[in-house]
Design brief:
Elements lengths: L5 E4 L1 H19 L3 H10 L4 H10 L1 H7 L17 E3 L6 E3 L3 E3 L5 E3 H13 L19 H8 L2 H17 L4 E3 L8 E4 L14 E3 L5 E3 L12 H11 L3 H10 E3 L6 E3 L6 E3 L7 E3 L17 H45 L3 H25 L6 H31 L7 H30 L10 H9 L4 H19 L5 H30 L1
Antiparallel strand pairs: 1-7, 2-3, 4-5, 6-7, 8-9, 10-11, 12-13
Length: 519
């Protein structure tokens, strides 16, 4: 949906729509507004649903809301008679008694206490029932207006207003902090209801959210991924996994120990000072060999796999959180720029806010990207790197360099070039962001048509294929080193030295070529 197919509603407009729906049902069914309100609320404020149920079986609908048939309706006693209140068991004159649409009378004081306590309990007061045993009737708006205090009346109508929004399919509250506006979708203008599955709306308070899942705008990332990611963010499961995979208990004192570097010889901190092998947890000996298969080693391999998964999650989670924080900071600066009417800075800051939003959700998308499809992962990370590089440059122009032009005596010659540089940086950031959006929308299908793993090397070395082969050979040698890493100590050391020398040669060659290209 390119055009804006929704309307922003304030509280006054919402109340007008609610009264209009109540009056419509009351007029068509020839019933009181109180009863019309009850029927609408029980049908999620859908007038068509109320009409269908009423005309299909009027008597059944009436009984469900406590309306008594005319032949058994309660006849009011003659004026001047005393009636017994079944709550306080005292007798009162008919003038001091009140009743709902069902006609069951109770004293005014008991009604007031009953209504006020129900409203104090919360939104459940909308389902208030007559105190009479087995009576299903709702006292209705008239009784609330008559007996409730101003404080309780305001609370009741606020609950009723929220019920009107929350029970409707085409209206939802804005999710922005402190915002009291609502959004109404115009369904008649939609070509297909499937469009709402990933549809972003922007309230007048400038907060944007997804219509389907009510989370912050996350297009083009799907709601399913966002739900999984947000659940992961609020879960303590990963903390437990980290403790299980990155720590072990001392075999002697059972204290948790974390080992993040060094050899397998571990000494428990004071006062225990027990020495043991990290892999098999057996006592450490002078010539300790831990090379025979046992269940502990199998468990260690599983824990290593868990550690790698946790590192991958930490990588994406940290960048997701950083982009979220950076976007909030940019939003604050955008509000200031709009306040002081700085047009050349507003567009740049708006692009920073949008790019940070896309980059933020790209890390949630990247976390669930299939890690076995290496070409997709590499290409997507490359696109993310492009956006980050373009944003850093734009941040420098829009946040740091602009400060010197805020002074009274700023260099006028430099300022004439500054807006052009700012616009160029904004265009580059926009272009890079659009690439990431297209990649996520198409499930990174572009990576299928190009061998991205060698694209960067071909750009750096366009005429020298030998160096590409050299890199490939290095990868094979390093892979071989990983294979023989379980052999004798001296052999591992020789392999390590050979790989280190080849790596140094490659770095020198790579650096020279890169310097020449930059020059």
């Amino acid at each position: 949906m390119n055009q804006k197919n929704y309307t922003i509603l304030n509280e006054k407009k919402i109340r007008q729509l609610q009264k209009k729906d109540i009056s419509k049902v009351s007029k068509h069914l020839s019933i009181s507004k109180s009863l019309a309100c009850t029927l609408l609320r029980e049908n999620n404020w859908n007038a068509n649903s109320v009409f269908e149920e009423w005309f299909s079986d009027e008597e059944k609908v009436g009984e469900s809301v406590g309306l008594l048939p005319e032949q058994v309706s309660l006849n009011p006693p003659p004026p001047g008679d005393n009636l017994l209140c079944k709550i306080c068991f005292e007798t009162f004159k008919i003038e001091n008694m009140s009743s709902g649409p069902c006609g069951h009378p109770f004293c005014t004081d008991c009604w007031k206490s009953y209504v006020s306590v129900s409203i104090d309990d919360g939104p459940g007061c909308l389902g208030l029932r007559c105190p009479e045993l087995e009576c299903k009737a709702n006292p209705g708006l008239e009784l609330i207006d008559l007996l409730a205090s101003k404080y309780h009346k305001d609370r009741y109508y606020r609950y009723l207003l929220r019920s009107y929004l929350e029970g409707s399919r085409k209206r939802k509250w804005c999710q922005g902090p402190g915002c009291n506006l609502a959004v109404q979708i115009r369904y008649e203008e939609l070509e297909n209801y499937e469009e709402l599955k990933n549809y972003d709306v922007i309230c007048d308070c400038s907060y944007g959210f997804c219509w389907n899942c009510l989370e912050e705008r996350h297009h083009p990332v799907g709601c399913r991924i966002v739900r999984k990611w947000m659940k992961l963010q609020t879960s303590d499961t990963d903390n437990s996994k980290w403790i299980a995979s990155c720590t072990k208990k001392c075999p002697k004192c059972r204290k948790k120990i974390e080992k993040n570097e060094g050899c397998d010889h571990v000494t428990c901190p004071s006062p225990c000072r027990y020495e043991f092998c990290w892999l098999c947890l057996s006592p450490w000996k002078l010539f300790h060999l831990c090379d025979k298969y046992n269940k502990r080693k199998d468990k260690e391999r599983r824990l290593e796999s868990t550690r790698e998964k946790l590192k991958r999650y930490a990588h994406h989670s940290e960048r997701w959180a950083w982009n979220h924080k950076s976007r909030e900071t940019a939003l604050d600066k955008l509000r200031l720029a709009k306040k002081y009417k700085l047009p050349f800075a507003i567009e740049a800051l708006e692009q920073i806010v949008e790019s940070r939003r896309v980059l933020k959700w790209s890390y949630a998308y990247g976390y669930y990207l299939d890690s076995t499809e290496k070409h997709k992962v590499i290409y997507f990370r490359y696109l993310q790197g492009e956006v980050e590089g373009a944003l850093e440059k734009l941040h420098r122009y829009a946040e740091k360099e602009i400060v010197k032009y805020a002074k009274v005596n700023f260099p006028l010659d430099d300022f004439t070039e500054f807006p052009a540089r700012l616009v160029d940086a904004t265009d580059v950031a926009r272009s890079c962001t659009e690439k990431v959006v297209r990649a996520m929308a198409n499930d990174v299908s572009e990576a299928e048509t190009r061998r991205f793993s060698w694209v960067v090397l071909r750009d750096l070395f366009p005429r020298n294929r030998c160096r590409i082969l050299f890199v490939r050979n290095m990868v094979l040698i390093l892979g071989g080193y990983c294979i023989v890493s379980n052999l004798r100590f001296w052999f591992k050391e020789i392999c390590g030295i050979i790989c280190l020398l080849m790596l140094m040669l490659f770095i020198v060659s790579f650096g020279r070529r890169l310097v020449r290209r930059l020059q």
